[in-house]
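Prompt: Have a read of the protein record below and flag anything odd:
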Amino acid sequence: MPEPEPVDLLDVIAFIRVVETGSIANAAARLGIVKSIVSRRVSRLEAVLGAQLLTRTPRGTRLTDIGREYHAHAAAGLSQLESAQEVVSKSTSEISGQLRIQVPAAFGEFLLAPLLAEFALLYPLIQFDVRFTDRQVDMVAEAYDLAIWPGAVPDSILITRKFAKVRWAVVASPAYLDARGRPAIPADLAAHDTILYALDPGRWRFQGREGWEHVRMNSRFCTDNGQMLLAAARAGLGVVLVPMFMVEGLLERGELEAVLPDFPHEGGDLQIFMPPARAGIARVRALVNFLYEKFDREI
């Protein structure tokens, strides 16, 4: 039986870059070659494999089902090759390559933007692709190296590392509380309007006098943007649950008021998520270590 035709590694890399960048044109720009070569390489890979990996559309490309499965394995293999190459690097200045990072918008804007900029100055050979998005991404299919997220992410294959304890606060505008009353116990919140973060299931958990208490919230306003959460709260649309670092200044100035300060809320701590194939790469390890050094405290 004849051996199958070998796959050209450059064809595989072209395919992976198309998936990462979303189009053949973007992949060509990233690789520094013309679009026709990228297209030809992907077509040749599909011919060797005997399967269609991508569906081409006027707006870009998307993976077929078999393409998604092949990409997961191919991207992991390429990561292993990159990791092996970086083993020979002996100094910090030699750490190079691209870091693709996903961060929730509010945490990115309030906390991580200056730190990521500082890290970029320390490692001048790393290229950064940082996305501030509150959408939980498919890290393998979308080729992310690392994500930072409060709480758990429903993907068992990801490596998880908690790196910061987050303080959470329930707040509202004084005008809203004057009009609707100030809750005395967590159960009182059920009668109030709530401003919810889009991924919040609306079931808040408080440490009460006799243990944990659960309250099902009545959502009046829902958004996936941290600044919109604060704007809605300041406008008097209801109570909102947010990380304390977002509202410390507003509380000090009296623009917002703490609700149930004697009943701590169980919020999610900041965690790092990595696909297993990315965790061993030197530039990923360097960023993880950097974040651990910066967040050795409660925030």
Observations:
- The longest strand covers residues 97-103.
- The mean pLDDT is 83.
